[in-house]
Amino acid sequence: MLIHRNMERISTDTPVDVMLTPQFYTIKREPLPVKFAYQAKKIAPSLFDGLLESDGSYDYFVYREGDTWVFIAYDLDEVLAFLAQKGIPPEKTGKIYFAQQVWKKITDPIPLGEKEALTVLDGTVVVVPRMALPGANFLSFDESFRPSKGVSPEVGGQTLFTRKQAIVVAAVFVLFGGIWLAEGLRYGKTNVTLQKQLNEFYENYPALQSAYTRDSIAGKYRKIDTEERKKREIIGKIAGLIFKGVTLTEFDMTQKKFKAVFVLSDKQVAKRFDQLLKSAGFSKSKASSDTKIIVEGTL
Amino acid sequence: MNVKRYSNELIVLAALLFALMALGYKFSQRTAMAEKNQAMAKEVAVFQETISLKNIWGDKRIGKKLESIRKMVPASKVKWQQKGKKLTARFTDLKPSEVNNLVTKFLNIAVQVVSLKVDKNGDTYTLEIQCKW
User: Fold this and answer.
1) A92 in a domain, yes or no?
2) Which residue, of A157, A191, A210, is where some domain finishes?
3) How do A292-298 and A257-264 pair as beta strands?
4) Identity of the residue in A170, A191, A255 whose CB atom sits nearest the CB atom of B11
5) What is the pLDDT of residues B76-97, one digit of tens each?
6) Which residue from A271, A280, A188, A187 is spatially nearest to A241, judged by alpha carbons?
7) Residue A106 resides in a domain
């Protein structure tokens, strides 16, 4: 939709892309030795020094046209206020384009109401009174005039972030995401030392490659180990009970139980023997006498 | 919904989703790695235990080691019956020190003691051991 000062008020439910006539912007062309639009945009304010009203808050739209840069200064607040006044509230304002962007397509004047028209003079789009164009053929404004680039107004209160804030916040998230992704990939690698150890075992003990076989063999030897260590521990303890005055007269050990018979020389020896017996965790059998001690137990 | 109007929020939301997914991926990988490493460590431990137990209780030189015990006392004092991997040995007329030595030697070899019997007869001892390996 072409926006001009004398336009009628409209009503819309859907967002509208608009094209501003020169009534809403100031244009300047400069052949600057800069390569990128963002560089040109940086110096835009200095180019319009003295040309714009000092109390306005201006934004700049810059694009390249051959060897020259085209700078367009516009007051977004003023534009949005005007659009709102004409029935296009900020939340219904889509992209904003500038008539200057399509000056080459304006081969004939485009009517702006009954009194004015949009035309091109020396490559610049201007608004002229229709009476200054007697007998001219008028073009109708349609979708074919839509330029490839435009401005998306960021209205305070309508969006949570400005584009700049969004990019900064998104960059932070992407940075963290990247770090976490890299960490995740690093975690994905298995423990090299353990893997190497396992590979060596598989290589050196092919018979133990099956977990079932391994568990079966381990279970068998674990049982033997426990039982035999227990037997040896008991024999060691029994041997530890022998000292001067104590004679082992009988010792019998089977897979399930053991029995040891000691003969003691006197009461003093018996006293010490009792202490040793207690510290070894054994107790006398009921069949024991003062000098003949029987120790029994199970494995 | 006007997608263009909320493009900034969409950019932030997409980046946030990416970050959250990356965080989720990191945690899932960490958990998976911990579980895998735990399983591998357990497997290594079982391997080591199995090998070590097998080396002790499945030692193929046990027969030879037992043979050396036989020669510790005069042949007249020994009755030695070995069938495959089973041994019944009876030692008679032993001094207490000989009993002690023999028991210690037997127990230092990784045999399974089926029965061990020591009896005092007067001043000497009789030792009978049944073992397998």
Assistant:
1) yes
2) A157
3) antiparallel
4) A170
5) 999 999 998 999 999 999 999 9
6) A280
7) yes
CB contact under 8 A, A253 and B117: yes
> Which residues of chain A make contact with B88, given a CB cutoff of 8 A?
none
**pLDDT, tens digit (0-9, with 9 covering 90-100), for A23-59:** 999 999 988 888 888 888 888 888 888 888 877 788 8
Indicate the DSSP class of residue A246.
Answer: E
Q: Name the B residues in 41-80 with CB < 8 Å from any A CB.
A: 41, 43-44, 46-47, 49-51, 53-54, 56-58
Same domain as A232, residue A153: no
* Inter-chain CB proximity A252 and B40 less than 8 Å: no
Say if the Cβ atoms of B44 and A180 lie within 8 Å: no
Residue A44: HSE in the Cβ half-sphere, 13 Å Cα cutoff: 23
Class level of CATH domain B62-132: alpha beta
CB pairs under 8 A between A and B: 176
Q: ipTM of this model?
A: 0.78
Q: Does B39 touch chain A (CB under 8 A)?
A: no
Domain that includes residue A110, residue range: 2-157
Give chain A's domain count: 2
Nearest CB neighbour to A94, from listed B4, B113, B119:
B4
Cα A1 vs. chain centroid, distance in angstroms?
Answer: 41
Closest CA relative to residue A113, chosen from A100, A98, A125, A129: A129
CA distance, residue A115 to nearest chain B CA (Å): 34
**Other CB atoms within 10 A of residue A107 CB:** 10
Q: Give the chain A residue nearest B110 (alpha carbons).
A: A228
- Give the pairing of strands A25-30 and B124-132: unpaired
Query: In CATH, what number is assigned to the domain containing residue A289?
Result: 3.30.1360.100
